[in-house]
Amino acid sequence: MKVGIVGLGLIGGSLGLDLRVQGLEILGVSRQEKTCAIALDIGVADKASTNLSLLKEAEIIFICTPIKAIASTIQQLTPHLPPETILTDVGSVKAKVVAECSQLWHNFLGGHPMAGKAEQGIEAAEKNLFINTAYVLTPTPNTPKEILNKVAEIAQSLGANLSICSPETHDQAVAWISHAPVMISASLIHACMQEREKTVLELAQKLASSGFRDTSRVGGGNWELGVMMAQYNKEELLKSLLQYRQSLETIINTIQQEDWQNLEQILKSTNQERSQFLD
Ligand code: NAP
């Protein structure tokens, strides 16, 4: 089977590496000649080009560009394709993307492999990135069943754990566990940088270790992606952040009032609840 990938960066490149190992023929397209050359060099694709017509024989095509370029890429791509070609994207936001792309191509299915790291671009692509991570597919009532089955089969072949839900439910859920954490983590770094005493700030930077590494990781990553998460999932992200602000204020009040019993209650319950997200 021939599989197309547009946007040979972290996610597109990592997909290519894993699918090629399975014996699929990977046709890769990216804007820059340099990206295509690296993709061929490191084994992301069998053929790579800056021209979308390379994908005319692909049975299924993954659109792995930044969120804002997904719909425009599909517009440029579809004149080259027979009507049975399956298109799926990997964008981190689904409701707006799926609404727009479903209008452009009947055989479109929204998807979101929830794997990532701070680095971006083809150089950051790596094998086995998707193992034991979530891969969400977001069909609409009009999505043909065979397309859902086909993309689900590929997602599972990557070692990912499949979830299926509506685009809207996806955006509500990821606002809590992905988009809000980016903003909260960024706020932490921003707040620390407001320390006025130079020696204190320098010592804090020197002492920062595993706790700070965990809590600051997603706020110190791909800033362009963070801005697009906010632009494309604004309402759900704001709901989560406003609730977060309320929870933070509760903790601040508890400390100001030296209500250690209440603080203990809160921290005891979060100690137990964390595993409901991560186990
Ligand atoms: P990335 O590493 O920056 O890769 C995107 C690639 O798309 C770039 O290498 C670039 O290659 C190409 N590109 C950039 N701007 C473009 C444009 N305007 N039009 C067409 N192509 C363009 O980004 P990524 O992290 O792989 O993210 C790609 C998609 O995956 C996004 O939709 C994102 O929401 C989603 N996603 C990301 C993560 C994550 O943690 N990073 C996780 C899950 C899903 P050229 O310069 O050669 O064109």
UniProtKB/TrEMBL annotation:
Keywords: Oxidoreductase. PROSITE patterns: PDH_ADH (PS51176). GO terms for molecular function: NAD+ binding; prephenate dehydrogenase (NAD+) activity; prephenate dehydrogenase (NADP+) activity. It comes from the Bacteria. One of its GO terms (biological process) is tyrosine biosynthetic process. Residues 1-279 form the Prephenate/arogenate dehydrogenase domain. The keyword Oxidoreductase applies. InterPro entries: 6-PGluconate_DH-like_C_sf, NAD(P)-bd_dom_sf, PDH_C, PDH_N, Preph/Arog_dehydrog, Prephen_DH. Belongs to the prephenate/arogenate dehydrogenase family. This is Prephenate/arogenate dehydrogenase. It comes from Gomphosphaeria aponina SAG 52.96 = DSM 107014.
